[in-house]
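This part of the workshop introduces the protein records we will be handling. An example says more than a description, so a record of this kind follows:
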Amino acid sequence: MATAPRPRTSTRDPEELARRLTAWLGVRLPGAKATGVRVPESNGMSSETLLFDVEHPEPPLRACALRLAADPAAYTIFPVYDLPRQHRTMQLVAEHTDLPVPRVLWLEEDPGPLGAPFFVMERVEGRVPPDVMPYTYEGNWLHSASDAERAHLEEASIGLLARLHDQVPVSEAAFLALPGEGGALRRHVTAQRSYYEWVVDGLPRSPLIESAFERLEEWWPADAGETVLNWGDARIGNVIYDGFEPAAVLDWEMAALAPREVDLGWMVYLHRFFQDLTVGFGQQGLPQFLRRERIEESYARLTGHTPRSMDFHTLYAALRHAIVMLRVAYRQVHFGEAAVPGDPDTLILHHASLAAMVQGSYW
């Protein structure tokens, strides 16, 4: 991880995007100009983000962030990018919770202006735990913080999930129900199976991922539990912090209806993913931070709901992440940045920990 080239995140020309954005803004807000247009260093490989300022005598927002659907010609990470759905989700959460969700202003469903649908929201200042190099590595603000500061950030971040799950009426989030038959958990897993089939279409399949799906069936919870609105990508890397307090909750493209534990398992495992990689490269990481038992205990205290079937749900999180990692790897192959090895499972960065979970020996 320390030496491999970072996968390309975009095939778009930032200067061309800036020109087209300025033209679009002038129509939406006559007399306005988009200035300081830039792509953040943390731009992901899924939806893309542009940051800009609005120059206008009375702008509805001055500091803006634009969320742009992935270029469909650029070997996208997900098969569908539903920006209106994300926009509606953020409005729903802002209306029904006290979570710090950025104010969403404009939704543009026409792909003409920028080549894909997008929405514009307020830009919130603060700092984000880095993914590259991950916050578990030495040399970043979160790693350098005190134990007490990290404990505060941990508790506040778990509180985001607790309040989201408790405060949003499921009836208002019905548009986030996944298609298919059965309960919310069954539909969620079925959607992941479909995603996996899309990822490996015409490419080598992953025996490890398929064995993880089989283990899920063996460990299926007798009671899947209450259905709530799930953030979907519940991790601290999707939060902007003011000091150690959440200031903005971002990235709602994976939001769906599911049991509470789907979000909790993702929060547990996405930290473990970084922690395991860090230890594998010879650093200590943050072994006391975001531990599974502390996440479960804090969530139970905040909500009155004791998380259950968490071996199942952390395995499911690791499985879901493996499918994304496989798609990222095949995207690198597509752009000539990597080659397909004899064992496709080795393309999954966390294949060893996923295999241990399947075997029941990880925890």
